[in-house]
Design a protein that fits this description.
Length: 348
């Protein structure tokens, strides 16, 4: 990456690498973010949320970002757990509402960036990159194509079906049946056709309105729990699908609406993980059987269930998701002392 030209000194300067995965932005902080204290990554996530949130607003909100912006803050990893390798890097994820626990599209970008930046030494034909996320250790493999980082595959934390055919009352729509899956974050998953919509042809606003209504209803009516940590037990968003859950060679389409009505431009790596866990729980996909998942931009992730495992009381699976990220540039963001508007705002 080319060096940025020096700017006049200001009280705050934050440097980033800009990427996208399937059209979904990934803003990776590389310098200037204040240190985030905490003995564990989840403790750092709480500290970032409770004491340093103005920096998230600065980078995610206008005028430097936008309503659907997404960012990554590299931090120091925890000491490795017994039987696990040391993480090459640890990260916090941030968006318009706060801090997520897993993000597959960002992991794909981080894998490529870690190799390209020299943070992890390149190994051909694949370079392993261990990334500690708030949900746990995620193992990525970066394919090396002509001496450069290419597609990235990552292996999920244990993913499981939390609820199948749960019924919730959705205002304006009545009683709606849906599944709840965990793929590093919890999602409500159901076909868009239950609202008379199609994920490939309906207006995005209509899909967002329906998904956001489901998210609000599930958050109010369905208590969630995760066996590892209560900080993981929250509904991140809703995924509306084309209903094609049984295996077929054609891509199955979905739209993920997460956080505060934020729309994922990619197929959603943790969402693909959750969908595969739900499909496996229903006996619709076999171990090792590969599927393709398509987003509203036409981007494709591939995924497959690698093995069966457990997550506390839940039968679980480990999922592999593969995609590709691209660079869009670098940035050096500053804030002048008298710029109150520049501290961040949203117009949506």
């Amino acid at each position: 990456m080319a060096d940025l030209k020096p700017l006049p000194p200001t009280p705050l300067t934050i440097e980033t690498v800009e990427m996208h995965t399937g059209g979904e932005p990934v803003r990776i902080v590389v310098a200037g973010y204040p240190p985030i204290p905490g003995a564990t990554l989840l403790a750092k996530r709480r500290q970032a949320r409770e004491r340093l949130d103005e920096f998230r607003r600065l980078l995610m909100f206008e005028p430097r970002g936008h309503f659907d912006m997404y960012g990554v803050i590299p931090v120091a990893p925890d000491p490795p757990r017994a039987g696990e390798p040391a993480a090459d890097l640890a990260v916090l994820f941030m968006h318009n509402e706060g801090y997520s626990t897993m993000c597959g599209h960002a992991v794909i970008a981080l894998g490529r960036w870690a190799v390209d930046s020299g943070r992890v030494p390149l190994q051909a034909p694949e370079t392993p990159v261990a990334i500690q996320c708030p949900c746990g250790l995620v193992r990525a493999r970066v394919s090396i194509e002509n001496g450069k980082a290419g597609a990235v595959a990552f292996e999920s934390v244990p993913a499981f079906a939390f609820a199948l055919d749960a019924a919730v009352e959705v205002p304006g729509h009545g009683r709606v049946s849906l599944d709840i899956g965990y793929g590093g974050a919890f999602y409500a998953v159901l076909p868009a056709a239950r609202f008379g919509l199609d994920v490939r042809s309906s207006p995005t606003r209509a899909l967002v309105d329906a998904a956001a209504a489901v998210t609000e209803a599930v958050r109010a009516q369905v208590p969630l729990a995760h066996p590892d940590d209560p900080d993981l037990a929250f509904l991140y968003g809703t995924i509306l699908t084309d209903g094609a859950d049984a295996w077929e060679p054609q891509p199955t389409a979905n739209i993920c609406v997460f956080a505060a009505r934020e729309v994922d431009r990619s197929p959603t790596g943790s969402g693909v993980t959750a969908r595969l866990a739900l499909q496996h729980a229903r006996g619709l996909i076999a171990l090792g059987q590969s599927r393709q998942f398509e987003s509203i931009t036409g981007a494709i992730f591939s995924g497959k269930v690698l093995r069966e495992t457990s997550a506390g009381p839940h039968p679980a699976v480990t999922v592999e998701v593969t995609g590709k990220a691209h660079y869009t540039g670098t940035a050096r963001f500053t804030l002048e002392p008298d710029d109150e508007i520049g501290r961040g705002f949203l117009l949506k």
